[in-house]
Every structure is written in C-alpha cells, then in structure tokens.
C-alpha cells in the first residue's frame, strides 16, 4: 500500500470512529442509544440487553470520550505510527468483544466486532517505502570521526 493511501485509510478509520462513538460520548446520549441497541438485539433473536446503572453509563462515557479524543487526534495528525497503534487497539477491542459474545447471547455486538476486525487488519497491512528509499532507516553517518578514549 502506498504511504498516501495508508494515511487516507487512517483518516477514514478516525472518521468512522467519530461517527460510531458519538452516542457513547455522554451518559444521556448513550442512554438513548442503549435502548436502540437493546431493541436491535431483540430483533436479532436474543433477549433485551440488561439494565444499566448510572456507573455503567459513566464508564461507557469515559470510554466514549477517550476514543473520541483519540479519533480526533488521528484525524488531524494521521501517521503510520498512529495507524499501527490504532490497529493494535482495534484488535484488542475485537478480542474483548468476541469474549463478551462467548459469555452471553448478544448478536448486536457483531455490528461492533466486524468493523473493528476490518479496520484492524487494514491498518496492519504493509506500507511501501517512499520511492528512492531502500531501507526503513538511513544508516548512521557522522562527519566527525569516531574516536575512543584510547586515542583511536
């Protein structure tokens, strides 16, 4: 993948995260969204989602706020390094989502699991070196000669 394409991919994943995480950003928006998730879970053939206490809403909003900030940061300053960090985070999120799905019947989690896996894999793909570059780092070269304490 070309470096410019990778940066566009990193921006696109950040935009996806902003749209996806906005309902989680406040306890009030998440309360409304949670009801919709529960309805969708029932439509998919499972039970309604369990009731949340205020502590659950605060914790989900903390997560939402952190992911929102991370997403805005990646959107404004995309880089290969941030894309790689994001890929690791997404694959970890996917692992925890899959673990939750093994614990209880929540088919609604597929709408979170599949995009996390897809973005995680895409952001893990190899990125070509810029043209003219044969190595990922330039060799260390100094104009000053190297000398040891022994005078060498």
Account of the protein in words:
The structure is a single chain. The protein has 152 residues and is mainly α. The protein has one domain (3-122). Helices cover 63% and strands 0% of the residues. It contains 5 helices and no strands. The chain has helices spanning 3-21, 27-43, 54-76, 80-103, 110-122. Helix 1 (3-21) packs antiparallel against helix 3 and helix 2 packs across helix 3. It is elongated. The relative contact order is 0.15. Residues 138-142 have low confidence and may be disordered.
Could you write a compact summary of the structure shown?
The protein is mainly alpha-helical. It is 63% helix and 0% strand.
Binned strand content: under 5%
How would you classify the helix and strand content by structural class? mainly alpha
In angstroms, what separates the terminal alpha carbons? 46 Å
Largest sheet: none
State the total count of DSSP E strands: 0
Q: Could you say how many structural domains there are in total?
A: 1
> How do the helices and strands follow one another from N- to C-terminus?
HHHHH
Average pLDDT metric: 87
Helix content: 55-70%
Notable characteristics:
152 residues, mainly alpha
Reconstruct the topology from this structure.
Layout: H1 3-21, H2 27-43, H3 54-76, H4 80-103, H5 110-122
Helix pairs in contact: 1-3, 2-3, 4-5
């Amino acid at each position: 993948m070309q470096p410019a394409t990778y940066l566009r991919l990193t921006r696109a994943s950040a935009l996806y995260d902003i749209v996806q995480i906005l309902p989680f950003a406040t306890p009030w928006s998440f309360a409304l969204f949670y009801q919709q998730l529960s309805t969708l879970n029932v439509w998919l053939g499972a039970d309604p989602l369990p009731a949340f206490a205020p502590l659950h809403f605060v914790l989900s909003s903390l997560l939402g706020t952190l992911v929102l900030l991370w997403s805005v940061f990646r959107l404004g300053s995309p880089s290969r390094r941030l894309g790689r960090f994001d890929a690791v985070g997404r694959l970890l999120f996917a692992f925890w989502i899959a673990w939750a799905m093994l614990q209880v019947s929540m088919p609604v989690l597929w709408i979170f699991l599949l995009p996390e896996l897809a973005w995680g894999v895409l952001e893990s793909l190899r990125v070509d070196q810029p043209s003219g570059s044969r190595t990922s780092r330039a060799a260390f070269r100094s104009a000053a000669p190297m000398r040891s304490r022994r005078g060498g």
